[in-house]
Amino acid sequence: MRKYICLWCMMCCCAIMVSAQGNDPVAWEFSSRKIADQRYEVHISALVEYPWRIYSQHTDEGGPLPTVIAFEDNKAVELQGVVEEEGSLIEKYEEIFMVDARYYQGKVDFVQQVKVDKEIPQDLAGSVTFMACSDAQCLTPQEIRFKVRLH
Question: pTM for this one?
Answer without folding.
Answer: 0.83
